[in-house]
């Protein structure tokens, strides 16, 4: 863990009466995982409990928001209790709470936010809302090797595909984003086309390992006007057209389709991340979010990084998909920097809007 919080900074905060939390409870409920984590002194993860609802949503081929909120309701208390037990701490030991405030499914977010508010209110301790996407891009600080600010972060998940310039824990600029589908969404949709299970990423990646990435040449959207933006809808349509044609001809080589589709996604993600790093002159690239668990993406980014003299850092797979540990690290730094939210804090379903290249003034 890198020493990004210097002693003089902590001393200054103490002098102002703001104390970084010793034991922080974090909660995540933005989508289909109910998760809780306990973080000690901003660096030591004592518990990271994740209750996934994938089995519930699988039979519908995607997330059903109403079912997601209901399951968060029944899971949140046991998940938090388990996290406290695993951490070996009592509720009264916790001295701050961090929670995902958005973006995500409103009904699901409300469950986590309400729980966090009630917990903080009953113990008279501070609580802070955290932006889920920013939590993904700071998850790397839970690993032994941390990046140096500023760094380029590729956040690739089921709901987001964006490139950011992270300049500090409360300063994140957007450099590019998807115009249509997120990369994870493309994996999920292609899995559906191929009759594979939800979520599509893990199963496609498994099948792709046995296929030929050059069997089909699927399109890679370049978008010359906004070269750091992404578009995956054309790729999805190209896969659909190819599969329909192959079905009519008598057989679909699923492994080759998976490998060729995955290679097209990986090519674009790698090319644009490297371009962002070269354009901004940074030396570190971080990749985070559910799709960052993809081993071909990690390998291709590392190879490109080696070629260009860039360091590529990926959190471990358990920190890539949704979890509360990343909310803990992002929340810890918000609290350390003096941010705190009131009991009137509300959830938000979409990323707060800010124009391209401008700093997101508030990293919530
Ligand atoms: O970050 P995440 O857990 O949830 C969101 O915030 O969206 O990401 C979930 C997404 C799903 O679309 C899933 O298909 C994708 O991450 N995913 C993968 C892999 N594991 C999960 N995509 C590609 N390869 C994987 N190994
Ligand atoms: Zn996520």
Textual characterization of the structure:
By secondary structure, this protein is an alpha/beta fold. It folds into 2 domains: 7-139 and 320-336, 2-Layer Sandwich (Nucleotidyltransferase, domain 5), CATH 3.30.420; 148-314, ATPase, nucleotide binding domain (Nucleotidyltransferase, domain 5, 2-Layer Sandwich). Helices cover 43% and strands 18% of the residues. The protein contains 12 helices and 11 strands. A 6-stranded mixed sheet has the order 10-9-6-7-8-11, sandwiched between helices. It has a 5-stranded mixed sheet with strand order 3-2-1-4-5, with helices on both faces. Strand 4 (96-102), helix 4 (106-123) and strand 5 form a beta-alpha-beta unit. The radius of gyration is 21 Å and the shape is globular. Residues 1-8, 10-17 and 354-364 have low confidence and may be disordered. Bound molecules: 5'-O-[(R)-(carboxyoxy)(hydroxy)phosphoryl]adenosine and zinc ion. Residues 31, 157-159, 184, 187-188, 199-202, 205, 289-291, 293-294, 321-322 line the site of 5'-O-[(R)-(carboxyoxy)(hydroxy)phosphoryl]adenosine.
Alpha-beta classification: alpha/beta
The CATH superfamily name of the largest domain is ATPase, nucleotide binding domain
Shape: globular
In the sheet with the most strands, the strands line up as: 10-9-6-7-8-11
Distance from N terminus to C terminus (CA atoms, Å) equals 23 Å
